[in-house]
Amino acid sequence: MNEDNHPTREMIHMISGGATDGDSGRARKAHRRRLENFEICRGADLPQDPVISFGPKDLRGVVTPHNDALVVTATIANYDVARIFIDNGSSVNVLFKSTLDQMKVEGFEFEPVSTPLYEFVGHTILPLGQIVLPLSLGTDPQRVTKMISFIMVDTLSAYNGILGRPALRDFRAVASTYHQKLKFPVGKGVGVLCGVQKFARRCYEGVVREEGKMTRVGVNMIRKGRSG
């Protein structure tokens, strides 16, 4: 019983799912060991990243007031892919089959995935597989590229992809929906990826128009990107 004399009920945890850091039993054990090692070594040999902060200057070009999600354009496997949702609540990174079909990705292998994804309302989605692709954030000279694991699903969506906690961790990125920016360390500097509010609002309008059913986006939202 707490200080207000109200009985405390059960703890409500975050709802999540998917093969975080891998789908096999070995990968899950490795993930747990990393967490345990972090608990033991906390505070020792931390990365010397530059300070990431947000201020009034970051609101330049942002339409306020707003309640927009952070939706960005990033480069995946040499394609500039729009309508990527930055989702701190997702335990996996997601690419939709319709997106990959348009990208015509070659030279990358799919791995089977047996762990289902769980939507917030409790619905389950069985992924088609897992693929590791190069993901680039920012623009030169503050541009970073890393190999990122994506779960592929075949379902309707207003977005082309979702960057969840694994990608944000790998880039050591910090998101601010209010400032409509994603910031990440680049050497001793800080890279910036700006949100596209018109895309965020179109995605939201599409969801509302279909009475909560996610809708497909236009094919022209993916174009051939830079080489290298």
Strand order of the largest sheet: 1-2-8-3-7-6
Q: Round the mean pLDDT to the nearest integer and report it.
A: 79
The structure class reads alpha+beta
Corresponding CATH architecture = Beta Barrel
What series of H and E elements makes up the topology? HEEEHEEEEEHEEEHE
Give Rg in angstroms: 19 Å
SS elements, strand count: 12
Largest sheet: 6 strands, mixed, barrel
Note the total helix count: 4
**What gross morphology would you assign?**
globular
Question: Can you tell me about this structure?
Answer:
It is a single chain. This protein is α+β, with helices and mostly antiparallel strands. The chain has one domain: Cathepsin D, subunit A, domain 1 (Beta Barrel). It has four helices and twelve strands. The strands form three sheets. The protein has a six-stranded mixed β-barrel. β6 (129-139) and β7 form a beta hairpin. The termini are far apart.
What's the gist of this structure?
The protein has 228 residues and is of the alpha+beta class.
Write the layout of secondary structure elements.
Blueprint: H1 25-41, E1 71-76, E2 79-86, E3 94-96, H2 97-103, E4 117-118, E5 124-125, E6 129-139, E7 142-153, E8 161-163, H3 165-171, E9 174-176, E10 181-186, E11 189-194, H4 197-209, E12 222-224
Parallel strand pairs: 2-8, 3-7
Antiparallel strand pairs: 1-2, 1-6, 2-12, 3-8, 4-5, 6-7, 9-10, 10-11
